[in-house]
Amino acid sequence: MDEIPRDQLTGALRRGAVKKHVAAIHVSGKLTLLQRKLSNVLLLNAYDTLISRTRHQIDARTLCLMIGYNSNDMETLKQSLRGLAETVAEWDMLDEKGQQEWGVSSLLSYAKLKGGVCEYAYSPALAEKMHDPKVFALINLNIQRRFTSGHALALYENCYRFVRTGSTGWWPLELFRRLMGVEGSAYYESFKHLNAKIIKPAVDEVNRTSNIILTAETRKQGRVVSEIRFRIRENPQLAILDIDDGEGMRHGPVYARLRALGVSDRLARQWLGVHGEDEVEAKLDYVETRKNVKSMVGYLSAALDGNFGSEEDAAGQGGAAIAAPATASVSAQAARLRRILELVKSRSPTQRDADRRLFLSQLTEARMRDDFTRHGWVSPLNAGRISAFWEDMSPGLFEGIEGA
């Protein structure tokens, strides 16, 4: 959305920003590592339409792949979704008017699996809080995948939202135990045990694995530790893994070109974070030279995925690249390609990433993998495999195409 000229604003609106308390949305730490990863993938998949839609969908196989378990293990997925629906998210913060607001909601209001698709929803109040980047920090999936401990990922999530302030502030130990999912345990009532088994290992993994570095500090009441806080600074060695809220990206010339082309703010920042400015700029230069392209944004999306085929290329270079059966006509080849690219385009960025990694995992030969990495879904060496892959993902995809 374009900025409103400040000279058109009056009164308090001219301040440009309202000072807001850095909010705390506390989620029970009793989620398993898989459930915590599942929660983040679902949020990322829904984020762009979190407020505008009441229901969200994602391919169940894609979801399993993104979390890291067997794509046919629907029972584990059901169990994980059930855990999210039974988990409480709680917030206590100041609103824009400085009034205290407390709220509680289940993490998912519902979830269902039908026809290979996972459908789910958030309560309106929680969706509003999670959509505000000042309140809830999206967790980069590149970083999330590196975690092996649920306690470490829980600590990372609860600290990352404070990265700009440099500190979490003081947490009572009872709150910290709840965030880590060990409240009610007599063993962890002892700070000595809590420190040795939870705090130190979790801090160590966050510092080794993520884009931030934590330092734990404690405060005592008498001789007993009563509060804990974490100092936070960026990890310069792993900062490349981070996709932040885009303040720096918004000032670059490549971002400006993307926005002028009609790319949404969030998608522009995501592309720049994943591909880097140089690659995005090169693909922009390429796309802008093409003629008779119906959707420049769609074509650019395909180009960044390595799919340079548009409808014009489908009958020429792209169509030749994906020719599957040698007996198929050029028009049938082009029709296959069009349907594949249309299907790829219709999927969310999260799903497209999972599709590519799922297909890559099925390629055993280095030359096949290299060719797919270079050319994406129009890879000449993988043409037959690509057709079979997408027909398996979407049965009937090629129905009505002569020779299909």
Automatic annotation (TrEMBL):
Organism whose genome encodes this protein: Paracoccus zhejiangensis
Keyword annotations from UniProtKB, A to Z: Plasmid
Coiled-coil zones: none
Domain of life: Bacteria
Domain Initiator Rep protein WH1 intervals: 18-159
GO MF entry, a single one: DNA-directed DNA polymerase activity
UniProt name for this protein: Replication initiation protein
Protein family according to the UniProt entry: Belongs to the initiator RepB protein family.
Entries under SUPFAM superfamilies matching the protein: Winged helix' DNA-binding domain
